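Pilot study result, target chain (223 residues):
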Amino acid sequence: MPTKDQLLKDLENIFKKMKPFIAYRFGDEASEIIGETRREYEALIPRIPYVGGQEPFTRYIITAAQYTALYRVLQSHGMSLEEVGQYIYDLTDAFLSSYPRLFLRFLTGSIFSKGFIQKARKKAEETQTREYPENYVFNFIEGDGAEFDYGVDYTECGVCKFLEAVGALELAPYICNIDIINSDKYGWGLKRTMTIAEGYPTCDFRFKKGGKTDVTSSVLHKT
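Predicted structure:
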């Protein structure tokens, strides 16, 4: 688990790249919003659970804490849940679009490797022990050789647990929508029909290298 100083430094680095996008939307208020978000995030850091230092689960929960901090600040500036959800989507899309697509694909190329898939199988078994109660729990789904290369069915969501603990569970479906951007940018070829955040018992992720993103959502982003 990163230290508090590391977490704040990471947030500062994100804001350095995001500030032009925030300034475009909020003008002179941008610096104020960034400062308030930093303070809100700092207050949330002690609430970020330790889930064994496992990646990507630790990173997912940290990112959820960052989104939650921004959500609370934007609400205090008069934005509705739906408006904040849309803004988070657009801001993340703009942020990732600032990187070359080939660079992003390089970062995620390993998720279809035999080694990565074998680790995913093992990690799925490990999560069944629930050693870290605030962590994710999931089952590994073998690929069918045609429609998808492999999949995971999450039966417990670490992000939802965190958001519920800090009183922001309503934000969860909007954070789930970020997977649409991630799939498009990183080349996941993600197909998903349901999420725990929307009240379903599982999140059914199916990955297909080179496939099209096909995600069903109750809070679809604007196109």
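One observation from the pilot: The first helix runs from residue 4 to 26. A full batch analysis is planned for the follow-on phase.
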